[in-house]
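The freezer alarm interrupted the setup, so I double-checked each line after restarting. Inputs confirmed:
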Amino acid sequence: MDTTKRRFSVRRLLAGVMGAGLIAAATPALAQAPAAGTNLIETIRNRGQLICGVSTGLAGFSAPDSQGRWTGFDVDYCRAVAVAIFGTDQNRVRFVATTAQARFTALQSGEVDMLARNTTWTLSRDTSLGLDFPATSFYDGQGFMVKRSLGVTSARQLDGATVCVQPGTTTEQNLTDWARANRVTIRPVVIERQEDNTAAYNAGRCDAYTTDASGLAAVRSTLQNPNDHIILPEIISKEPLGPLVRHGDQRFADLVRWTHFALIAAEELNLTSANVEAAATGDQRPEVARMLGRSGDLGQMLGVDNRWVVNLIKVMGNYGEVFNRNLTPLGLQRGPNALWTTAGGLQYAPPFR
Amino acid sequence: MSQTTSDPRYGLKPPKRPMRISWSDERFRGIVWQVVVVAIVAAIFWWLWSNTVRNLEVRRIASGWGFLGREAGLPIAESVIPYDPTNTYLRALTVGVLNTLKVAIIGVVLATVLGTVLGVLRLSKNWLVSRFVGAYVEVVRDLPLLLQLLFWYAVLQGLPGPRQAVNPATGVFLSNRGLKLPWFEWLDAHSWALLACVIGIVLTLIWRKKALARQMADGQPRRVWPVALLLCIGAPLAVWAAQGAPFSPDIPYLRGFNFQGGLTVSPEFFALLVGLTLYTAGFICEIVRAGILAVHQGQWEAAGALGLPRGRIMRLVVLPQALRVIIPPMTSQFLNLTKNSSLAVAIGYQDIVSIANTTLNQTGQAIEGIAAIMLVYLTISLSISLFMNWYNTRIALVER
Amino acid sequence: MSVTVNHTPSPALPPPSRVMAGGPLGWVRANLLNGPINAAVTLLLAYLVVRYAISFIDWAFIHAIWEVPNDRFGRPDTALCRDNKGIGACWAVIGEKHRFILFGTYPYEEHWRPAIVCVLFIALYIVSAMRRFWRKELVLVWVATLTIIGILMWGGVFGLSYVPQERWGGLPITLILATFGLAFAFPLAILVALGRRSRLPAIKALCVLYVELIRGVPLISLLFMASVMFPLFLPEGMNIDKLLRAQVAIILFAGAYLAEVVRAGLQALPKGQYEAADALGLSYWQKTGFIILPQALRLVIPPLVNTFIGFFKDTSLVLIIGIFDLLTAAKTSIIEPQWQGFAVEVYVTVGLIYFIFCFAMSKYSAGLEAELNRHRVR
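Predicted 3D structure, all chains:
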C-alpha cells in the first residue's frame, strides 16, 4: 500500500523538478518582445541594443571576419539604424544569423527587430507574412554566369545546360518561369547554401550559376581567374532587396525608411563622413540645415535626436561610402543603384522637409 | 509463477475486491494519478495549440493542406517518376519521398554487404587486414556523418569535367556530372516481363514451402532451383519474347554541355550513397563481428566433428545463430541509415526533407511542411521495424 | 547409432605457442604471411597504405604553406596558396582563421573566456570518467562547473562584459549542446524509462508514444521544428533564443534514445533484485533509488558513453539551422573572398578535433566495458 503512495508522490515531485529546471534554464533566454501597439523605438532604446537578423554568410552583404565581427552592406544598414536611434555608437547592434528558411519566423516572432538579409520585395511577402518592406536598399536582378570556354554569349543558348540554383528563394522560381517562357530545358542542381553553390559551380558541377547579379559579381571576383568567367547580358528578373520590419509599428518602419533616405540624400548633397561635422555648422543650404537638425525638428518627428543624420553620416558615411566600402571590392558597379540626380540610377530620396 | 514451490496457494491470484473511492486504495490512486498526468499533458498541448492558432491568425499565415494541389514551380534535379515544375506540390513531395526511399533501400543493401564483409575481415587472421579494418571503423565512427558527406561531395566535385570524363568502358563515363551508364529504352514489354518475374518469385516461394513440407513427410530432399530458374527467369524471358523481344540500347554520348541518354548517377546521390554506406558499414561491421564472436567456439568444433566443411559450418551452423544476435542492432542501423539520409539537404540531393523545406519556404506553411517530413519518416521507420520484428521472430530460437 | 567413447586419456599436447614465439620474424610469418593468398593481400594492402600515406605527408607537410604575406592593404595575400593548390596544403588558412573556427563570433578580446570554458568541459569529462569520483558529490561538481561555464559565457557579473548567445560560437557551442543535452536528457530519460515499465497504462502509453515518435524521425526534422515551429507555439510577445530552442530539441531527442539505454539496464537486472527490495518492504522510490537505479545505471555506462559520442557528432547538424557550432564556424570561415577554396584544410582540422574527442571517449567506453565485464564474469 505504502509503496504505491510513495511512488506517485515521487513521480509528481520529479515532474515538478524537471519542469522547474526547464523553466529556470529558459528564463535568462526568454526575451519579452514588444507587443503590438507599443513603441518599438522606445523598447530598443530601453534595451540598449537593436537586434538585427542577417544572413549566415554572404560575402559583401553580411559575413563575420576573422575576428568574428560582422561586416557587409546589410550589416551596415543594421548599424545605421542603431546609430540613428542611439547617436554615435555603431556597436549597439546584436546580430542574429538567420537561415533563408527561418528569417521570416524570426522577425514575426519578435526574435529580431528588423531583418537586413538580401530579401526580395514581392507582393505575396508584403501581404501574407505580416511584414513590411520600408525601403529598397539595393536594386538587383537575376542573371547567369558561365565559363568563358563554353563559348556561350546569351542565356538562350543554355538549352540542356546544368544550372546551379539555391532553393526556397525567388531565384529558383524565376529560373523555372524563364526556362518555360523561353522554351529552354534546364537541368537544375539545387544546393541549399550559397557558398556550396559557388563551390559546385567553380568545380564544374554546373555549366552555369544563377543568382542575383550582385551575387554573381561577388562570386566572380573571388574565383581564381575572374576573366575565365562571364556574366551573361540577360537579367531575367527584378530583385529589389531591402530591410524588413514587422507590420504594425509604423514609427519604427518610418525610421528605417528615412535612415535609408538619409544615406541617399547625404550622397546627393555631397555630405560624407569627413565633412558632415563641418557642414552641420557651416553649410548654408536650407535642406542641409533641415536634414542636419540645425533648423526644424525633423529628427523629433521620427522620434530620435534632431542631430541623428549628422551622427549617422559621421559614423557610417553616405550611401556611396557604404556601397564602396562593402561592394566595390567585390567588383560590383553602382549600375541601377547610382543616384537618380547625378547618374540616372534608381536611388532617389524624397525631400527632407 | 515459480514452478519450484509446492504450495498450491502460491499460484493463486489474490481475490478481486471492489475498488474503494478512497486515497488508501492503490487502484484508485493509480487512476487518479493517471488522470492528473494525462490532464497536465493535454493542457500543455492545448496551450501550445491555442497559441499556434492565434499566432497563425495574427501573422496571417495560411494553414491546411490546400497548397498541395497548387503548382509547385520548383525544379527537381532527379526523379524516379516524371516530374515538371508545373506539377503540383503533392507530386513534388511524392518525388521527394521516392528519392528518400531510393537512397535508403540501395544504401541498406550496400551497407549490409560491405559491413558483413568488413565484419568477417575484422576477424581475419591477417594482422594487417584486421588492423586496417579496425582503423577504418574507428575513423568513420568518430567523425560526424555531415562532415563525411561534405567531404565526399567535395571529392566528387574534384573529378574532371564532362569533356575530359574518365571512360573506362564503352558508354561508361565518370565526370563531375556523375556516373553515366548504358541503359536501354523501357518499353511495355519490359514492364510485362518484370511483372512475370515478380509472379515467378512468389510462385517459387510457394513451391519451396510445399517442397519442404513434402520433404518433412517422406524425407526426400527436392530440388528447388530448377523450378526457380524456370519461373523467375524463363517465364519473364518468354513473356518478353512473345512481344517480339524489343530492345533498343541507350548509350550515353556527349552533346552540347552534357551527356545525353543512358542512366545517370548524379554526384549528389553518389556522395550521399557513398557517405551513408561507408558510415553505416562501420557500425554493421562491429555488429557482425560481435555476432560471430557470440557464437560459442564449441559450435564450430561440434560441427567440425560432424564432418561439415568450413563454409557450410558458417552457413548452416554459425550464421543462423549469429543472426539472432545481429538482427536487433542491425534493425536500428537500418533505421539510422534511413533517418540519416535526411542529411541530403546539406549536399543538394533532393530528398523529402529538401523538398518539404523548399515547400515551406515558398508557402510559409511551416507546420504542414514539417508534419509532412515527420509523417514520412515515421511511416518508413514503423515499416522497417515491423518487417524486421517479423523476420526476427521467424528466425528466433523456438524453445520447446 | 552407436557412440564409441575412448576412455584412454590422450597424451598431453604441448602448450600453444606464444604469439611472439620465434621473435618478430616469427610473428610476421604467423600473422602476415601465412599462406600465399594472405601474403599477397598483405603486400598489396601494405603497398597501398604506404603509397597513400606518403602522398598525404607530401601534401600535408612537405609541400604545405604555413603562412602567407600581407598585401599592401594589410590583408593576407593568398596567391601563393592558390598556386600551390593540389600540391600542398595551405595551413595559413588555419593560422588566420583558427580563432574564428574555435570561438566563432564571440568578441575577439574576450576569447580567453570560451577558451577556459573548453578547458573546463574537458576537465569535467576527465573527472567524470574516473571511477574513483563516481560519488554523489559528482552531481555537485557538474552543477558547479556548468554554472561557472554559464557565468563565463554570458558574463554580466564580476566585471565580465555581457555577451548574448547570438555571439557564441565554435567549439564551446558544440560542447554546450552535447553536454547540456546529456545533463538534462539524462533525468528525463530515467523518468521515461521508469514510466515505460510502469504498470499504469496511461503513463506507460505516454512514455512509449514519446520514445517511439522521437526515435522514428530524424534529428533534422526536430531541429527544423525548433527553428521555425517553436516560435509559433509560444504566446505572442514571448520568444526563446535560437540556441536554446535547438538545445531543447537536442534534449528531447537525446531523452528518447537515453531512455531506451536506461530501460535496457533496468531490464537486465535480475528479477530477484526487485523481489528482494519488495520483500524488505521498501517503497517504490526507495526501491528504485537505492536498489535498482544504482545497479542499472552502472550496467549502462558503456552504452551511455557511446550514445553520448553519437550526440556529440549529431550536434554538427545545427549547421542546417544556422547556429555557429564548430562545423558551421569552419564553413563560414572560408566565405571571405581571399580564403575561398580551402575547404579541405579546414575540414581536416575540424575533423581532427571531432576525432580526438570521439576517439578518446570510445576508447574509454571500450576499456570501461571490459573492466565492468571482468568484474561481472568473476
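Quick read of the result. Chain A touches chain C through 62 residues (CB under 8 Å).
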